[in-house]
Amino acid sequence: MDENTETTALLPKPKQNKPTPLPKLQLGVILFAQISEPTASQSIYPYVNQLVTELDITGGDPRRVGYYAGLIETLFYVTEAMTVLQWSRASDHIGRKPILVIGLFGTALSMFCFGMSRTFWTLVMSRCLTGLLNGNVGVMKSVMGDLTDRSNRAQALAFLPVVWDLGAAAGFFIGGQLAQPHIQFPSLFSGQFWRDYPYLLPSLATAGLVFLSGLVVLLFFKETAPSKTIRNHDDHQDANSPPPDSVVSLGPLPLRHLLTFPIIISVANYIALAFLDISLRSLLPLFFAMPIAIGGLALPPSKIGLILALQSVAIALFQILFFAKLIRRFGERRVMIGGMSMYLFIFAFISIISITARESGLTIIVWALVGCLLSFSVIADMCFGAIFMFLTASAPKNSRGSVNGLGQTLVSVARAIGPALSTSLFSLSAEKNLLRGHAVYAVFFVISVGAVMLATRLPVEVWEE
Q1: If we measure between CA atoms, which residue out of 451, 461, 165, 445 comes closest to residue 334?
Q2: Assigned domain for 440 exists
Q3: 75 burial class (0-12, 13-18, 19+ CB within 10 angstroms)?
Q4: Which of 439, 456, 318, 293 lies closest to 375 in space, CA to CA?
Q5: Structural domain tally of the chain?
Q6: Residue 75 CB contacts under 8 Å (≥ 6 apart), including other chains
Q7: Which tens digits make up the pLDDT trace of 109-161?
Q8: Can you say whether the dihedral through the CA atoms of 20, 25, 28, 31 is positive or negative?
Q9: Relative orientation angle of helices 96-115 and 136-147, to the nearest 10 degrees
Q10: 3-state DSSP of 61-113
Q11: Has residue 276 been placed in a domain?
Q12: What is the crossing angle of helices 261-289 and 364-380, to 10°?
């Protein structure tokens, strides 16, 4: 060994755990596109109960509003569940970009149709179209997996729930503040057209945002699917040179080969989380809107939209400031268990708020309890970032689209059941006076216990890819 070799051997080895720099432009484009799904799905929540009432579907009985509002809300996820796996698997073969562009422009069109709808069945068809064309939610998670590795994934995935909640906040704000513009902005929208289509303006605003994100993807997004990027790289090689090993095993795996324990337990927890989350998101606007006499708070759409928008902004800020730090301090499993435990407090607090409002009206105590309730939901939302890390690590690189599509299909089924179940249980509890109108909260408290127990089955450490 010569002097130079010996000196080199004595030098300290460089650290191998330095995070890989994130591709900022690609990441920014996909995060902007991610806004479209929550904006489109959540923008109707502030006014959908009022819309059902105005269409006189319930025959003037406010206790039955939950049945029809829940159906409209759930159809988005029913139709999404029918197609999201096909969209995601297609992205493994033809690339992420074509699927993203189709989904974004299709969602913009469907939101315009929703705003122009004036009968129950046209609302149903418009909402179904939104779900059928919205295959992007699984594809976007696949893109995030393509753009990151184990060293920087926590940093990148922390932004997904943030962007989702910012999109939801935009949807809630748009739906609450732009609904019925002839009433809220009479000097600008006083014509008969806006009286005939009182919910077109929020739908147009939502459609415009989604359309803009589609243009951004079309112009600036570069393909990330492994099958396309490796094939494009291989096109520049000598035609007579043998293909690299990575290309030989490039093809996406059949679905039956993806049913491993890491994938199954990750998807199961994702389903439980999504079910509780969407059930709460559907239940809260109904709870806020219904008369105090039947267990609600009797708030108008503008206040409901503002409360839900502030909640989403608070969730986003909490994610930005604390998610990565909490993951490093406690690990993904503990964050997941702690976040799921919050649903126990959430459903208990809704019942307490309802009882307090009936006895004393909308006092400062009620608003303080509402603030506590929303704080619990802020903590619970951390679960999404944690479970995305488990799910992404469990997926083979060449089958990320399939795994995310499978997970998103099952999650969409859960999200289809959640709104209809929660709002219908609310109406049933009020109609039949089950547990003095609080049976819906007891049912979801029990479901939350099961979800916490399921989260304890996750491993202490995220799997190696």
Answers
A1: 461
A2: yes
A3: buried
A4: 318
A5: 1
A6: 124, 127, 128, 131, 416
A7: 988 988 888 888 888 888 888 888 776 777 877 787 778 776 666 677 667 77
A8: negative
A9: 150
A10: CHHHHHHHHHHHHHHHHHHHHHHHHHHHHHHHHHCHHHHHHHHHHHHHHHHHH
A11: yes
A12: 160
Enumerate residue ranges in the chain where pLDDT < 70. Answer: 1-19, 58-60, 63, 66, 135, 150-154, 157-158, 227-258, 397-401, 463-465
Give 358: exposed, middle or buried? Use CB within 10 Å, 0-12, 13-18, 19+. middle
Helices (runs of H) and strands (runs of E) counted in the chain: 23, 0
Dist CA 281 CA 309 (whole Å) = 12
Q: What is the pLDDT of residue 125?
A: 87
Q: Token digits for 311?
A: 């909640």
φ, ψ at 155 (rounded to 5°): -65, -40
Which residues, 6+ apart, have CB-to-CB distance to 453 below 8 Å? Answer: none
Residue 174 tokens, joined: 């748009």
Cβ of 145: how many Cβ atoms within 10 Å?
A: 25
Which residue range forms the structural domain that includes residue 149?
23-228+256-455
Residue 465 near residue 266 (C-beta atoms within 8 A) = no
Q: How many angstroms from the chain centroid is the CA of residue 415?
A: 10
Residue 13 lies in a domain: no
The residue among 349, 387, 394, 381 whose CA lies nearest residue 368 is 349
Secondary structure class of 312 (helix, strand, coil)? helix
Specify whether the backbone of 23 is left (phi greater than 0), alpha (psi in -120 to 50) or beta: beta
Predicted pLDDT at 348? 93
d(CA 283, CA 350): 10
Q: What is the pLDDT of residue 320?
A: 81
Rounded alpha-carbon distances, angstroms, from residue 391 to 149, 266, 336: 13, 5, 13
How far is 396 from 46, CA to CA, in rounded Å? 40
Dihedral of the alpha carbons of 336, 338, 341, 343, in degrees to the nearest 10:
-70
Q: Is residue 73 part of a domain?
A: yes
How many CB atoms neighbour CB 3 within 10 A? Answer: 7
Q: φ and ψ at 76, to 5 degrees? A: -55, -45
What global pTM score does this model have?
0.69
Report the distance separating Cα 118 and Cα 54, nearest Å: 10
Q: How many CB atoms lie within 10 A of CB 172?
A: 29
Q: CA-CA distance, 358 to 354, in Å (whole number)?
A: 6
